[in-house]
Design a protein that fits this description.
By secondary structure, the protein is an alpha/beta fold. The chain folds into two domains: 276 residues, TIM Barrel, CATH 3.20.20; 110 residues, Sulfite Reductase Hemoprotein, domain 1. It contains 13 helices and 19 strands. The strands form five sheets. An eight-stranded parallel beta sheet has the order 9-8-7-6-5-4-12-10. Strand 2 and strand 3 form a beta hairpin. Helix 9 runs parallel beside helix 10. The two termini are 18 Å apart. Its cofactor is [4Fe-4S] cluster. Belongs to the IspG family. InterPro entries: Dihydropteroate_synth-like_sf, IspG_bac, IspG_bac-typ, IspG_C, IspG_TIM, NO2/SO3_Rdtase_4Fe4S_sf.
Length: 421
């Protein structure tokens, strides 16, 4: 396995979750419920947590929302969910923290956007109050700068200074520099106000892939704070998934990024958990972490006119993911299991042998039998209409034998060794 070089950062503790340096890259998500509806918000946090989100952010935008945060925390505790909650504050955060101290205590981290705190001395006072509150209650803070809500006074100051140069930079470059300066200056203000460096995480989110890569490379080279990655508005469906994967994979491969969030716009009525699945699959397909057994499956061609292998691949992937809530506790290490579902004789036997467990289904015109390979050896040949159920039973048997108590593969999931830089 290759060694991935990670940025050396301060480590930030968010309840039981450690962020930074050699800690695993953390998956984060955010609710889209009305936080004033404590029941709906708690249920969505639990759903996101069950899907694998290790930190969940909630909107705290009104007195009604702030008043319900402690109830949401209690509801989660009652459900056995200890996932840390992050309060997302804009415009009125200092007032809500002041008026609702139970909200301030119940959150595990505050997200503060310097561009939305306020202007001038009044803005400085608001920022100072939020930072001092975090320090008082020993809470972590993410200083999150966004392209769409950059501090305009800072942007103007830097634009004016740029225009005075003999060779001014392009306005886009100045804006990207302003993002970084806003984050770094705000972090220094927080430290000066008494918040320890090991309580601070930074982010500089934009919506363009190339801009995000450039900004985070620069930011990462100029500080030792952990960084939260994500396109600020990734988009919907395949566009959002592709854009997020393209940007984050480049940065993660360079050792940049300590928490990630995939900001997908969900289809109407679609579960919010899709963004968690995508985040996990980015990390797992890169070999950085293991979350759930993955299924290798061929795309199909003229040799596979039957839909049997497609249906089986879909059913197996759904089955494995649905089982993880239980398997994660019963079978440590099962998240690194690799299953192959192949559609014909061309690559089927070879891919099946390389997987922990694999099945090679018959293609068009092939003998209607399906050999099953376990740890590279042909174990049994399935045929008939009950192949899917029989193969699932073989998978379950394999998991119990290999990842159960005393099993030869009972261990933590595979990760790439990390070397700090």
């Amino acid at each position: 396995m290759q060694t991935l070089q990670r940025r050396q950062t301060h480590q930030v503790q968010i309840d039981h979750v450690t962020v930074g340096s050699d800690a695993p890259v953390v998956v984060q998500s955010m609710t889209n419920t009305d936080t004033a509806d404590a029941e709906a918000t708690a249920l969505q946090v639990k759903e996101l947590s069950d899907a694998g989100s290790e930190i969940v952010r909630i909107t705290v935008n009104s007195p009604e929302a702030a008043a319900k945060v402690s109830e949401i925390r209690q509801r989660l505790n009652d459900m056995g969910c200890n996932t840390p909650l992050v309060g997302d504050f804009h415009f009125n955060g200092e007032r809500l923290l002041q008026e609702f101290p139970e909200c301030a205590k119940s959150l595990s981290k505050y997200r503060i956007n310097p561009g939305n705190v306020g202007k001038g001395a009044k803005g400085d006072e608001k920022f100072a109050y939020m930072i001092r509150t975090a320090a008082e209650y020993d809470k972590a803070v993410r200083i999150g700068v966004n392209w769409g809500s950059l501090d305009q006074s800072l942007a103007k100051r830097m634009m004016d200074a740029n225009l005075a140069l003999a060779q001014p930079k392009a306005p886009e470059e100045v804006m990207k520099e302003a993002l970084i300066v806003s984050a770094l200056e705000s972090a220094q203000k927080a430290v000066d106000l008494g918040l320890p460096e090991d309580k601070i995480i930074l982010s500089c989110k934009v919506s363009s892939v190339q801009d995000l890569i450039q900004v985070y490379r620069d930011l990462g080279s100029r500080c030792h704070y952990p960084l939260h990655l994500g396109l600020t508005e990734a988009g919907m469906g395949s566009k959002g998934i592709v854009a997020s994967t393209a940007a984050l994979s480049v940065l993660l491969q360079e050792g940049i990024g300590d928490t990630i969030r995939i900001s997908l716009t969900p289809e109407p009525g679609e579960s919010r958990t899709q963004e968690v699945v995508v985040a996990q699959e980015i990390l797992q397909t890169m070999g950085l972490r293991s979350f759930t057994p993955l299924v290798t499956a061929c795309p199909g061609c003229g040799r596979t006119t039957s839909t049997v292998f497609q249906e089986l691949a879909r059913d197996i992937q759904s089955y494995l993911r649905s089982q993880m809530a239980v398997w994660r506790l019963q079978y440590p290490g099962v998240e690194s299991l690799n299953v192959a579902v192949m559609g014909c004789v061309v690559n089927g036997p070879g891919e099946s042998k390389l997987a922990d467990i694999g099945i090679s289904l018959p293609g068009t015109g092939e003998t209607p039998v399906a050999p099953v390979y376990v740890d590279g050896e042909r174990k049994v040949t399935l045929k008939g209409d009950n192949m899917a159920a029989e193969f699932l039973a073989i998978v379950q048997e394999y998991v119990e034998a290999n990842y159960g108590e005393g099993g030869p593969k009972r261990r933590q999931g595979r990760v790439i060794p990390i070397r700090n830089i």
